[in-house]
Amino acid sequence: MITRRIFFSQLALDARIGILDHELRATQPLHIDAEFDVRVSQDVNDQNIQTVLDYRLLRNAIVNECTRAHVNLLETMVERVMDHILTEFPDVQRVRLRISKPLAFSDCNAVGIEAERKRQPDA
User: Fold this and answer.
1) Which of 15, 28, 102, 111 is the most exposed place for a label (fewest CB within 10 A)?
2) What architecture is the 3-118 domain classified under in CATH?
3) Which helix (H) or strand (E) holds 21?
4) Which residue windows are transmembrane per the record (predicted)?
């Protein structure tokens, strides 16, 4: 199987996440790094976006999933985004996702969660 990797580096958005009092009252910035290994099923036609997976759709899916509701834990948010991607984009064979909170601690650039999931082969 031939694959192509789509990636996002430090996609920045504000989301409602966390369990602390101040996190329950306001949004906070998140940075998202993501990689998607996409099955290549046809040749690229430079005149037809339909011959590739439009990365705008992946970006929209990430942003929508991260901002649709308050989530207590980064682990939950990572799992929800991966579930959504693998459900909505059948050509995505592998997802690696890192979501970080850049303002969580004053003594480091960010803290976050990274996870990876591969699509299960058809039984």
Assistant:
1) 111
2) 2-Layer Sandwich (3.30)
3) helix 21-25
4) none
d(CA 53, CA 38): 8
Q: Which residues contact 78 (CB under 8 A, 6 or more apart)?
A: 97, 99, 113, 114, 115
Closest CA to 65 of 122, 18, 107, 15: 15
**121 pLDDT more than 90:** no
> Distance (Å, rounded) from C-alpha 24 to C-alpha 32?
20
pLDDT digits (tens, 9 = 90+) for 19-32: 999 999 999 999 99
Both structure tokens of 81: 């985004």
Residues 6+ apart with CB under 8 A from 4: 37, 38, 40, 52, 53
The band of 74, judged by pLDDT with boundaries at 50, 70 and 90, is very high
pLDDT tier at 122, thresholds 50, 70, 90:
low
